Amino acid sequence: MDDSDDPIDERTRRGDLIRAWCDAARLDGRHEVLSDRAAVLIAVGRVDIETRQIVLNRLRSGKLFPSIGGFGALRLLCDEMNWLDGKLDGLRMGPTRLALQQRRAHLARRYGQAESTFELSIHHYARGVRAIRKDRRDGVHLDLEQRVALFTALTRTPTPLGLGPGPLDRAREIVVGVAADRLEPVGRGVPELARAVAGRDADRFADRFDTMLFLAGSYHDRIQASKMWRSEVFAIQRSQLDVGEELIQISVDVTELADVETELTAAFEEGDARDEVGRREVLLRKGDLIPVWDQLVDRVGALSRIVDQLADAERDHRTLGALQRTVDLDGKIGDLIARSGSRELSADNTHNVGDQIEKR
Fold first, then answer.
1. Distance of CA 351 to the CA centre of its chain
2. pTM for the structure as a whole
3. Is residue 287 exposed (0-12), middle (13-18) or buried (19+ Cβ within 10 Å)?
4. How is the chain split into domains, by residue range?
């Protein structure tokens, strides 16, 4: 058997590719930002179990969440706010500081608008005692504190940041004294702006964890968008795999792994250089996490495999459809040819009538 036909070998190659993408925090080409649904599913990996279940209940029951123009744009907005806070810290008074402060205030207003829209929408959340009680019975009511927690989680939505020294290079103009109002407002074409600054041949991410979550979310979106996946052909497979639930579980594990690794890194860096025992212990703990990462790579790889298989199934379906249409056309052509003789007589008869009229 050819090695390329070996499912184990193919699974390994797929995993190696995903691992390489995540380690580089970079994906070749340009990629669509995540759908609101995928962003919400990833975000619930950062909230408590009760909120997580309520959000899942809402999505399954068709209850939507407020749209703020893309949660990827929200992530970029928050990243720029954090970047500006770092620049302003310790910066002496002057035109540059004033420009940065104006930009920071503008972003804060946009953030506040998005926050209010998401957390207080009267069109998406129950109002009134009866409506709230009903939603609670149905398991779909989110208290304000839970909406706040979910919105905070959405500010970490994985999204392409672009290539180059940093996704916020557009703010360099401010630092050299250019007026802040010359910058395009955040939320309007931000992903495109970041790529224009950084280059268009690849999308860059904050770290390997963001890259993995973005890949998982993208595969979720592509599976859910597949007509074949939603068809009766794969009804059994849909009953076996809840893609949304799988994305949530991947998000939970990736988020927890990232938090633990951050703590271990901090412990390693803060340790006394002479405390070799402590450092070795930290390295051993990091080694214990390798199988967890490998398992996550395999799970995301499994989603990517489904995406590819659905694409193959759709191509096969289109081919079969084209063949069926050809068969149908052959039948119609045969009918037309069979009736051509009678139609010729009919045409002759019509011409004959015309001749008679002309002679009168």
1. 66
2. 0.77
3. exposed
4. 1-25+208-330, 31-206, 331-359
Helix (H) or strand (E) holding 26, with range, is strand 26-28
Q: 239-250: b or e for each residue (b if 16 or more CB lie within 10 Å)?
A: eeeebbebbbbb
Residues in a beta bridge with 203: 27
SS (H, E, C) 41-77: HHHHHHCCHHHHHHHHHHHHCCCCCCCCCCHHHHHHH
Q: Which of 255, 262, 216, 205 is nearest to 24 (CA)?
A: 205
For 249-266, what is each residue's pLDDT tens digit? 999 999 999 999 988 888
Beta bridge partners of 28: 202
Whether 338 has a pLDDT exceeding 70, the answer reads no
Query: Is residue 267 a contact partner of residue 353, using CB atoms and an 8 Å limit?
Result: no
Cα angle 189, 195, 200 (rounded to 5 degrees) comes to 130
**So what's the pLDDT on residue 195?**
45
